[in-house]
Amino acid sequence: MRLLRLHFAVFLLVQLTSCKPDADVAPTSAKLADRTWLRSHEEESANSFIQVYRPESYAFPPSWPRTGYLFHADGRLVHYNPAPNDGGSIPSEVGTWTWEEAAIIHGHFSAQYGAGDYKLKVIELTNSILKVQLL
């Protein structure tokens, strides 16, 4: 029994020391930046605060034009809104973005768009999905 406990303790120690902190999300900017992320509201739970975004190349089901973001690697932020004539989504550069800390995106809207700040906590980020929570 002692030998089993010792093996478990060593296994647990190895697993814990190999875990990476959340700070590793920030270096994954390559997965986030210079890609257009469109909101996939069909994948969101009704009572959840988590928003789901997919790359524009994703095979979305038919719907109204989608909102979204383009986070440029140089810090520019573009927001996509539905066109007034329902002709798709239209981009407009609205401000800047940076990684504030581990998994927090800090966005800043320019005066033209209401000069405000917002924060998004990145819940999941892969090449095919971006899940965020508005803070």
From TrEMBL:
Organism: Hymenobacter crusticola
Name of the featured protein: Uncharacterized protein
Species classification: Bacteria, Pseudomonadati, Bacteroidota, Cytophagia, Cytophagales
